[in-house]
Design brief:
There is one protein chain. Helix content is 27%, strand content 27%. The chain is α/β, with parallel strands linked by helices. A hairpin with a 4-residue loop joins β4 and β5. It has a nine-stranded mixed sheet, sandwiched between helices. It has a single domain, classed as 3-Layer(aba) Sandwich (Rossmann fold). α1 packs across α2. The protein starts with 5 loop residues before the first strand and ends with a strand. It has five helices and nine strands, in the order ββαβαββααβββαβ. It binds adenosine-5'-triphosphate and magnesium ion. The site of adenosine-5'-triphosphate (ATP) has 17 residues, from α1, α2 and β8.
Length: 171
C-alpha cells in the first residue's frame, strides 16, 4: 500500500456508523477492491452505491484481480451483466438502465448469486432485490479522491469489513 489510504473507524458513540477509508487515487480504490476479492465467496452480493463516476467500476476491476478471474472489467451498464469465469465466477452487473428490481431478477440475479459472487453497480436502485446480508460499498466524492464506506445489515461480513478497511493510519 502506498500509504495514501486512511481508515475512519465507526464512531464509538454510534455502532451503526460504517467503517470507511479515504482513497486518494484510482489505484487506492482498486486496491480496496482487490483486498475484498481475496476474501469473497460464492453467494456474496457486493452492492456498489455512489454517484456517476464515483469509482464503482474501478473498485470492481480490483475485485476481479483479487478473485483472479478472467476478462477485462468494463462498465456493464449496456449489457446488464458481464460474467468473469475463475476459481469463483464473478458476475459484474449494473442496475443503472433497469426499470425496476424485477428486471434484475428476470435477468438471473438469484442464479448468479447461487453460482458465484455478484458485484452490482447502482445497487440502491434495486434495493428490494438484494439479499439481506448484502455487503454495501458506498463511494462518495471527497476532496480530490473518494471516501469508501463498507456496511452490511447482517453479521456475515463483519470480519470482511474489518480486514478490508485495516489499512493505513486511523484518522
Ligand atoms: N479514489 C479515487 N480518486 C480519484 N479518482 C478516482 C478514484 N477512484 C476512481 N477514480 C476515477 O473516477 C473515474 C470514474 O470511475 P468509474 O468509471 O469506476 O466510476 P463509476 O462509479 O463506475 O461510474 P458510473 O457511474 O458511470 O458507473 C475514473 O476516471 C476513475 O479512475
Ligand atoms: Mg461504472
Amino acid at each position: 500500500m502506498a500509504g495514501t489510504m486512511t481508515r475512519q473507524a465507526g464512531r464509538e458513540d454510534d455502532s451503526k456508523a460504517p467503517a470507511s477509508v479515504f482513497a486518494a487515487t484510482p489505484d487506492d480504490t482498486a486496491e480496496l477492491g482487490r483486498r475484498l476479492g481475496e476474501i469473497v465467496a460464492a453467494g456474496d452480493c457486493i452492492a456498489l452505491c455512489g454517484p456517476l463516476g464515483a469509482g464503482k467500476t474501478c473498485f470492481v476491476s480490483g475485485l476481479a484481480r483479487g478473485m483472479e478471474v478472467e476478462g477485462r472489467v468494463a462498465s456493464p451498464s449496456f449489457i446488464v451483466m458481464r460474467q468473469h469465469p475463475g476459481p469463483v465466477c464473478l458476475y459484474h452487473a449494473d442496475a443503472y438502465r433497469l426499470t425496476d428490481a424485477r428486471e434484475l431478477e428476470e435477468a438471473g440475479f438469484d442464479e448468479w448469486l447461487e453460482e458465484g459472487v455478484v458485484a452490482l453497480e447502482w445497487a440502491d436502485l434495486v434495493a428490494e432485490a438484494l439479499p439481506p446480508d448484502a455487503l454495501f460499498v458506498r463511494l462518495e466524492y471527497e476532496a480530490e479522491g473518494r471516501r469508501i464506506a463498507f456496511d452490511s445489515a447482517g453479521p456475515r461480513h463483519a470480519e470482511t469489513i474489518e480486514a478490508v478497511t485495516q489499512c493505513g493510519r486511523s484518522e
